[in-house]
Specification:
CATH topology of the largest domain: Rossmann fold
Shape: globular
Number of helices: 19
Helix content: 40-55%
Distance between the termini: 61 Å
Structural class: alpha/beta
Strand content: 5-15%
């Protein structure tokens, strides 16, 4: 089939490349000519494992092209996927649908009469019906469930597909688009518009809730002298609960979970079906950042003024250069404001971090970040950081103090090498007074 993908950011570029990998002819559309030029030359302006190779291969073959012309896109595509962003509004917790509305209007103005417009963006429930009522071209909704760092795998081999459709024709078109994926046995859920929209927002809300639940248990463990790591292990053996997303730490960030749960709660309020617990999920998440700052101050004698702090991590998660709502950079910036001399290192997110937080210091390696540090904060769970030799690290720092904000470092290994080691939700050693 001939497909267009409107918006070539993280979601759109990934979807376009993967649709070409499935055998379709694909045209990516964006209003940013620099982004289009980069993608057309095979360059990806963000970090996502496996994606540059796909884009380079399919742009070279001609199966994947990019343009800034909606007129060209309308003439080309049989199915048009809208993959633009839905950031948080400036005046409320609600989702800003400016880009979604503009993209649908622009492609609908040029699309063939029998084309199908398919939304993939995460939107408040009710959006698909409003757009379907606004435009003459048929609309469907096909929510995405991508994990940064695994987006190619999640597109080509998803754990489920959801089609929000209002006609058998729309369902048939989407079945044809995803024929190879469905042939591989991927479960398909066909739903109405509201349910399809809610699947994505409900999934994000559930994951955020599970993360904040174990972080709330970390708060209780800290107050009671318990160990949240052991608690999580015991809970995870229950098949009804499972082990995933039960690691206590500095909390979630990124461009999806924080703004999506706020938008979901906002929309639920508008509908008269409030989800008040999501406000507490958000609050618990933010309190974990407060706790890391509190631990940092305690290890520096009550204040970080003048202390040299090494922050390991800038991206909100490993295998990504995405710094949106990054807990690591939020903590780093707060310590900088408190007068600390903060140096950050991340394997992939350094350029993005420098642009957004230019007043922080940056190192070219983890070892360089550690040089002369009075305190080390481990805040992004990169494998490279777990492999650091504590004895070697101790020879680089001024004071061997570390806070493991992700709960993955081997506490015995670090303490045996002479470090004062603290982790969220773990008992504070006697005499620490933190």
């Amino acid at each position: 089939m001939r497909l267009t993908v409107i918006g070539t950011g993280y979601l759109g570029a990934t979807h376009a490349a993967c649709m070409a990998e499935l055998g379709h002819e694909v045209l990516g559309v964006d209003v940013d000519p620099d982004k289009i030029a980069a993608l057309q030359s095979g360059r990806v302006p963000f970090h996502e494992p496996g994606l540059p190779e796909l884009i380079a291969r399919h742009t070279a073959s001609g199966r994947l092209r990019f343009t800034t012309s909606y007129e060209e896109a309308g003439a080309f595509g049989e199915v048009h996927f809208v993959c633009v962003g839905t950031p948080q509004r400036a005046d409320s917790d609600g989702a800003d649908l400016t880009y979604v509305d503009a993209a649908f209007a622009a492609i609908a103005a040029h699309a063939a009469e029998d084309a199908l417009l398919v939304g993939k963006s995460t939107v408040p429930v009710g959006t698909a019906r409003r757009l379907a009522d606004t435009h003459d071209t048929e609309v469907a909704w096909n929510p995405e469930f991508l994990r940064e760092g695994f987006a190619v795998e999640d597109t080509l081999r998803p754990d489920r597909l959801v089609f929000g459709v209002a006609s058998s024709r729309a369902e048939a078109a989407l079945r044809e688009v995803y024929a190879p994926v469905l042939a591989a046995g991927t479960p398909l859920v066909t739903a109405d518009f509201p349910t399809a929209e809610l699947v994505k927002t409900a999934a994000n809300a559930f994951l955020a809730t599970k993360i904040s639940f174990i972080n709330a248990m970390a708060e209780v463990c800290e107050a009671a002298g318990g160990d949240v790591g052991i608690l999580a292990e015991a809970l995870g053996h229950d098949d009804r609960i499972g082990r995933k997303f039960l690691r206590a730490g500095v909390g979630f960030g990124g461009g999806c979970l924080p703004k999506d749960i706020r938008a979901f709660a906002h929309r639920a309020d508008e509908l008269g079906a409030p989800l008040r617990f999501l406000r507490e999920v958000d609050a618990i998440n933010m309190r974990r950042r407060d706790r890391v700052v509190e631990l940092a101050r305690g290890l520096c004698g009550g204040a970080v003024l003048g202390a040299r702090v090494a922050v390991l991590g800038a991206a909100f998660k490993p295998d990504s250069d995405d710094i949106r709502d990054s807990p690591a950079l939020n903590v780093a910036a707060r310590l900088k404001l408190d007068g600390a001399d903060v140096t950050v290192y991340d394997p992939e997110a350094m350029d993005n971090a420098r642009k957004t937080f230019p007043l922080l210091g940056y190192a070219m390696s983890a070892e360089e970040a550690l040089l002369g540090a009075d305190l080390v904060l481990h805040l992004t769970e990169w494998p490279q950081f777990r492999e650091i030799d504590p004895a070697r690290a101790r020879s680089l720092v001024s004071r061997p103090h570390i806070v493991d904000g992700r709960g993955v470092l081997d506490a015995d290994r670090w303490t045996s090498a002479g470090w004062r080691f603290l982790a969220l939700g773990r008992p504070v050693p006697a005499g620490e007074g933190i």
